[in-house]
Amino acid sequence: MTMRPDDHRRKWDKNEYEKLAVERLLNQVAPKEEEPVQRENLKRRDYKVDLDSKLGKSVVINKNTPTSQSGGYYCNVCDCVVKDSINFLDHINGKKHQRNLGMSMKVERSTVDQVKERFQQNKKKMEEKQKDYELDKRLREAKEEEERYKEHRKEKRKERKRKADDSGDLASGGIPDDMAAIMGFSGFGGSKKNS
């Protein structure tokens, strides 16, 4: 390395760059310790996703229309527009959206007590449904019983009427109806028989 005046090549200060390299190594060994972001576990949605409100509606869109009112489904968490309902559901359930909500994609592990409690809740629901079913069944059976009772009463009425007609024929002199019709009279007006 000569210091000639016609030598225009850049000369590097090796000591200075060696110091910079050592500092960089020291910084790499003890980097700034940032705490990892703690995200809560994935949990169930407590609201109903509205997919039907825009179904079958026409919207006029121009260049001044805000993105939230443009065509498709708008996600206000991620500030994006998705064109159809299937992709919107995929987006809502996706990693990016859940991260923006502050959730990880990990699901909380249930304990044995929680599982037993959930079984009890489901059992109570099934018993309520069973009670409702039994109530419906009892109502149906009561209705059928009432119909049978009405039918029975109707039969009894017909039977009484038949007996009354039989005794009425004998009371008119014991002449059969067809014979009375041939003779020109059908009785004394006590019954409303049409022959």
From TrEMBL:
Cell compartments where the protein resides: Nucleus
Would I find Zinc among this entry's keywords? yes
Compositional bias (Basic and acidic residues): 123-152
Q: Which GO terms describe its cellular component?
A: spliceosomal complex; U4/U6 x U5 tri-snRNP complex
Keywords annotated in UniProt: DNA-binding, Metal-binding, Nucleus, Zinc, Zinc-finger
Looking up Pfam families in the UniProt record yields: zf-C2H2_jaz
Ranges where the record places region Disordered = 123-195
What SMART domains does the annotation carry?
ZnF_U1
User: What GO terms are given for molecular function?
Assistant: DNA binding; zinc ion binding
Segments of skewed composition (Gly residues):
186-195
Its GO biological process annotations read: mRNA splicing, via spliceosome
Name by which UniProt lists this protein:
Zinc finger matrin-type protein 2
